[in-house]
Amino acid sequence: MTNGETEVLGKQLENAAEFLCQADPNQTRILTCIGYFHDFELCRLGLLFDIPTGFRHPAENSKPYIITLLDIWSNKPPAHSLDQLVRLARDISTAILYVHAVDWVHKDVCPQKILLLNEIGVTTEKARSGYLPQAFLLGLYSACSDLATSYCKGDEDWKASIYRPPTRQMINKTQYRISFDIYSVGVILLGLALWGLPHFRQFVDMPQVFEKTSPTMREAAVM
Amino acid sequence: MESLLRDLSDWVNHFHLAYVSIRAATTLPQPAEIETASTYRRVLNLFLNEEFQRAESLDKARLPCPKDEAKVIQEAHTFALVELQGAKEAIAELILYE
User: Tens digit of pLDDT per residue, chain B (98 long)?
Assistant: First the structure.
């Protein structure tokens, strides 16, 4: 990454932090940003988010860890109730709705960007027996105004392209639009609905469907 | 079904109000928030390295690997739990670059 590109990314991050520091996580399902940083020495930058009141990260034997929707999808079929799955779908949609309400485009809606947090008071036993944590959307560092110039960067990694519409998969450089985010939410909701069905595997576990195939072939294979 | 429709109706009303509030809020100048962000930036720059080293003991597996290993895993984006001053925990979203 050139110095210029790093500077642009840093500026994007700063804009995102100013926007995200206003988020009310309980209402928007977007975590409140409490700061951002650019660590030139270690070549990393990022955003810091507050853990919402009433929530905590999961822990196993007092060792805290972070889980995303992708992590729990990788587990065995769920023991979650339909109510819980609907709530999760609603939370994800809510977060995206708020992003779009201010004319922003997320540009990378995928299960890896959906963070799950336990409500305080959930016991380890309950967490193991079908409790589904609550979802919060992250990954807004690359978000920008719908009207802003998109850098039209593609992604050669098929796993990163699964949740993007065919016109924006792989190295296709179409400008990102709000409707693309909505497509991504649709793919996540599809995954959520199919989760647990016999013989269903998550999309990331189907390389033969996505690697070296055309968008039309992918659509035919998945649907 | 009736309950579902009622929920849906509440939901739509809720979002309509929230949408209006957000629209109103975002058209106002926010000097306080901008100042807050820049203040945090200064504070973070002071203790960031130390904080991330402490975070490594919290969740080593998910922390970004050293720069020279970044190419191997091709993972440029990750999350980490970090402990801020005052033992307050926060979630860091990290982007690595080369």
Answer: 566 666 656 655 555 555 555 444 444 444 333 334 444 333 333 334 444 444 443 333 333 333 333 332 334 567 777 766 556 677 888 777 76
Taking CA–CA distances from B24, the nearest residue in chain A reads A102
Q: Per the structure block, which two tokens stand in for A102?
A: 């201010």
- Judged by a CB distance cut-off of 8 A, whether residue A36 touches chain B is yes
Q: What is the mean pLDDT of residues A44-71?
A: 81
Residue in A66, A101, A141 closest to B95 by CB: A141
Tokens of A57: 């990260």
d(CA A89, CA A135): 9
Count of A–B CB contacts within 8 Å?
Answer: 121
Do the chains contact at A49 and B95, CB–CB below 8 Å?
A: no
Show the domains of chain A with their CATH numbers.
54-222 (1.10.510.10)
Q: What is the largest distance, in Å, between two alpha-carbon atoms of chain A? A: 50
User: Do the Cβ atoms of A43 and B98 come within 8 Å?
Assistant: yes
- The whole-number average pLDDT for the span A130-145 is 83
- Report residue A116's pLDDT band, with 50, 70 and 90 as the boundaries: very high
CA B33, distance to chain mean position in Å, is: 15
- DSSP annotation of A172 reads -
What is the span of the domain harbouring residue B27? 2-95
- Counting the structural domains of chain B, the total is 1
Beta-carbon separation of B18 and A65 below 8 A: no
